[in-house]
Amino acid sequence: MYDTDKRKLLSALCHGSIFFSATLVSIGIPIAILLVSEDPVVKDNAKEALNFHINLWIYGAIFGVLTLILIGWLFLGILGIVNLIVPILAILHVFGNPDQPYRYPFIFRIL
């Protein structure tokens, strides 16, 4: 079996890395964990965190373009709120149920 505390920590690191999204280190954390971990739940959480990063970048680019036509400010505000709240929910889920990977709602799963 896999160590539950290690599973919680690594999964929380994957989801918490989004709080460093202004740096490239943020996406490096789940990539590194995906490459070194052998735990399937941790790997699933790392993939989900990577998908969330990619989705935020895509939505940010789209809303940034929309900002040029003055409607995007609202969407950028909503995206900022989502960027804060959803990873917190993921971390709470990981600590509450470490044997099940968290699935972000409303994202495209590329990985």
Structural account:
The protein is mainly alpha-helical and 111 residues long. It has one domain. It is built from 4 helices and no strands.
Keywords:
single chain, 111 residues, mainly alpha, 4 helices
Tell me briefly what this model is.
The chain has helices at 4-16, 25-36, 40-67, 72-96. With 111 residues, the chain is mainly alpha-helical.
Topology:
Layout (H helix, E strand, L loop, with lengths): L3 H13 L8 H12 L3 H28 L4 H25 L15
Helix pairs in contact: 1-3, 1-4, 2-3, 3-4
Structural class: mainly alpha
SSE topology string: HHHH
Tally the beta strands: 0
% residues in beta strands: under 5%
Number of domains: 1
- Biggest sheet architecture: none
If you average the pLDDT, what whole number results?
90
Radius of gyration: 15 Å
Straight-line N-to-C gap: 25 Å
Q: Which residues form runs of ≥5 with pLDDT under 50?
A: none
Total count of helical runs of at least 4 residues: 4
- The percent of residues in helical segments reads over 70%
